[in-house]
Amino acid sequence: MIDSRSTGRLLPLAIVLALAGCQGQASSRxxxxxxxxxxxxxxxxxxxxxxxxISAGRIPGxxxxxxxxxxxxxxxxxxxxxxxxxxxxxxxxxxxQGRIEQNLVSVWDNVRRGEKILxxxxxxxxxxxxxxxxxxxxxxxGKQAGAGSLDFAASLVTAARRKxxxxxxxxxxxxxxxxxxxxxxxxxxxxxxxxxxxxxxxSAVNPGDELxxxxxxxxxxxxxxxxxxxxxxxxxxxxxxxxxxxxxxETFSGTIARISPNIDPNTHxxxxxxxxxxxxxxxxxxxxxxVRIVTRPGSALVVPQDALVFDTDAYFAFVExxxxxxxxxxxxxxxxxxxxxxxxxxxxxAGERVVTGETIQVNxxxxxxxxxxx
Length: 374
Hints:
Layout: H1 4-31, E1 41-43, E2 51-53, E3 64-66, E4 68-72, E5 75-84, E6 89-93, E7 98-103, E8 110-111, E9 116-121, H2 123-145, H3 147-166, H4 171-175, E10 183-187, E11 192-197, E12 204-205, E13 210-215, E14 219-227, E15 239-244, E16 252-259, E17 269-277, E18 288-294, E19 298-304, E20 309-311, E21 314-322, E22 325-334, E23 341-346, E24 353-355, H5 359-373
Antiparallel strand pairs: 1-2, 2-22, 3-24, 4-19, 5-14, 5-18, 6-13, 7-9, 7-12, 8-11, 9-10, 11-13, 14-17, 15-16, 15-18, 16-17, 19-23, 20-21, 21-22, 22-23
């Protein structure tokens, strides 16, 4: 039999046990997850690009924006480098075996056509000169011997003179010959500037050895790059202007002389070669210049800079193929005048929707999921 004092002691214990049971049930309910954690999925289809599934709102800050088509101005601008016009460069090559006796010019010297620049010693000259003088003497004798002998003697003179020309002698030096001499002066074939000098006094030379290179800078070339989607806006003969850092207030005029038949696969550009008039010789080879070509207006594709992610060696964008599904696509880009935007030259089309926020995080997810599914 339980008395009233025992009942008083058991009641508080029952209350404590009941509260403990309630707390245990609450803790058990809290430990049980109420939802399945989100895991991005990769859809891989044979022969098609992989697609990353991202549910809307799963990545805070992720936004989507369309690729815009923007108008291009009527002036196409590119940078380039000034070079010699290779049609106006002449190389002086030794045609005999011999030795350099004298050298009258050095690099950057200006020379006139026909000016003496190098004395070359070679027995080949002496032999050829002796043959020419003998043929000329025979021709004088042939005049007294009859028409047949005269024709034969004239052919000998022509052949001997031609041999001296092939050895590099000028007409004036051949006409002035009175006796064989192993030393012959080589003369400048054009008026211009000595841009390369390989001739050292006393050094031996062989046939085919390059001695000098002369160039003229009355007209120069500027070689620049044009993006492939701008090629339809340029053509040979098109007028242009060029400005350099050395002469920022002076404009040089010219035309497009050549357009490369090849496209650089890495930059999607073609080279153009511009012929520029260079009064006073201010433009120097290897100078940098900005070329402006007046052309008809065009259009270009542009996207925000944060739509692109640089990975390994290229730029990529995530293109929405359908709701919540994105394809990772390689794109080619160029600079653009609008701040915060870049020009797309390949990989995207106008109207396509691309990820523009948290692109780096999306790219990291793509690598993670792609690695697990491959």
